[in-house]
Amino acid sequence: MQRRVGAVRARRLALRLQQLRVVDTVADMATLTARIHALAGELTGPIVLDLDAACRVLLEPATDERAGGGVDWSDVRQVVIISITHRD
Predict the structure, then answer these.
(1) Is the torsion defined by CA of 41, 43, 49, 52 positive or negative?
(2) Could you tell me the pTM of the whole model?
(3) Per-residue pLDDT tens for 32-53?
(4) How far apart are CA 55 and CA 21, in angstroms?
(5) Dist CA 17 CA 70 (whole Å)
(6) Which one, of 80, 68, 84, 79, lies nearest residue 27 by Cα?
């Protein structure tokens, strides 16, 4: 991973993954970092965990948690990483 995104981002990713392991729900990540938010527009559904201004991790619930078309992230306890994107 370090080769793909660089040493600093690889450390940030490792930190974010560790934080995901210790929180009860994905919504609890907001108390650890302000860099978590839902996507808008065509990509509604996944949630984004920003590593920095140019790199982000897209997450979705590991199970279908959608109620009424949306996801209540305070109920989500497991996620799947959809992608790690960066633009440099």
Answers:
(1) negative
(2) 0.77
(3) 876 888 777 665 678 888 888 8
(4) 20
(5) 24
(6) 79
